[in-house]
From TrEMBL:
Xref: Pfam families: BD-FAE (PF20434)
Keyword Cell cycle among record annotations: no
Keywords carried by this UniProt record: Hydrolase
InterPro entries: AB_hydrolase_fold, BD-FAE-like_dom, GDXG_lipolytic_enzyme
Species, as recorded: Algoriphagus limi
PANTHER family named in the record: AB HYDROLASE SUPERFAMILY PROTEIN C4A8.06C, ALPHA_BETA HYDROLASE
GO molecular function terms attached to this record: hydrolase activity
Domain BD-FAE-like: start-end pairs: 58-255
Name of the molecule in the record: Alpha/beta hydrolase
Taxon lineage: Bacteria, Pseudomonadati, Bacteroidota, Cytophagia, Cytophagales
Keyword set includes Hydrolase: yes
Length: 294
């Protein structure tokens, strides 16, 4: 019988372990290296969670070649009267925004919606969700390789939420500029627009301007405009039967009074929602507005 040589066994074991170690290192280095060899590819992250509720999610669109220094972020907030809608609204504008602002990353958020049946998620639930979403974006910007230069945009109720955050919570994210399409801006004056407006706002804010005046004050963007408020671009149609153009007129007057940079465009004969050509022109104008701020 051949005698077992323990020293040979140890040498073979060492060689085998070294070979396996080389294989492991080689297989990991190509996938786990935090420093890429070239520009980062484009990346899309869907239903990224920023809270515990199923509605507290966002879609993140990161451009190719992004960096911590040179990739601003635009957060888009959908409309729907605070009771409907979803982040998928952004998809109809996504291509146009990416062409107009090729260096930007884009984030489209959902937020908790008010429920007329249960009266759950009354305001300021939606306001607080925007705060949480902005904080989540900032907390993840290094791993996403984007800068801390934030912009807000939204339509209708989303425009209202974008303006409210930019003026009332400017310190959360240091918003550089805000863009809004046909936004509610003063919920106290909006209350008497029609019966539907009265019913909706009474439920959302748990009372009328007479019975719950603080809720209306706290949820109206115009009440928080000051000289240091971020530059604002907003757009409204003259025959809007959902949010009257007087809401944007009030916004313009207050911005002018406080000396805030703004651009206000009025579209004759258009209502609550614009035609495709107008949307394309607006996105081009938003790009120019942002570019002029540099």
């Amino acid at each position: 019988m051949q005698k077992f040589d323990f020293s040979i066994f140890l040498k073979r074991l060492a060689s085998y372990s070294f070979f396996i170690g080389i294989l492991i290192i080689s297989s990991c280095s190509s996938n786990d290296d935090p420093i890429p060899d070239g520009p980062l590819p484009a990346l899309e992250l869907f239903d990224n969670s920023y809270g515990q509720d199923a509605r507290q999610v966002m879609d993140v669109f990161l451009p190719a070649g992004r960096s911590l220094e040179n990739t601003p972020i635009m957060i888009y907030i959908h409309g729907g009267a605070w009771i409907d809608g979803s982040k998928e609204e952004f998809l109809q504008f996504k291509t146009a925004f990416e062409q107009a602002l090729p260096d930007f990353a884009f984030v489209a958020i959902n937020y908790r919606l008010f429920d007329f049946i249960t009266n759950s998620n009354r305001f300021p639930t939606q306001e607080n969700d925007v705060i949480a979403a902005v904080q989540h974006v900032l907390a993840n910007r290094v791993s996403w390789n984007v800068s801390d230069e934030l912009y807000l945009a939204g339509a209708s109720a989303g425009g209202h939420l974008a303006l409210l955050h930019a003026y009332k919570h400017q310190e959360v994210g240091d918003i550089q500029a805000v863009m809004a399409l046909f936004p509610p801006t003063d919920l106290t004056s909006l209350y008497d627009f029609n019966f539907l407006t009265q019913s909706g706002l009474t439920a959302l804010l748990n009372g009328s301007p007479q019975t719950n005046p603080d809720a209306y004050f706290q949820s109206s963007p115009v009440n928080f405009i000051k000289p240091s408020s971020p530059p604002t671009a907003f757009f409204h149609g003259t025959v809007d039967t959902v949010v009257p153009i007087s809401q944007s007129d009030l916004l313009a007057a207050k911005l002018q009074e406080e000396g805030v940079i703004y651009e206000y465009q009025i579209f004759e004969g258009q209502g609550h929602g614009f035609n495709p050509a107008t949307y394309a022109a607006i996105i081009s104008d938003i790009s120019a507005f942002i570019g002029a701020l540099d």
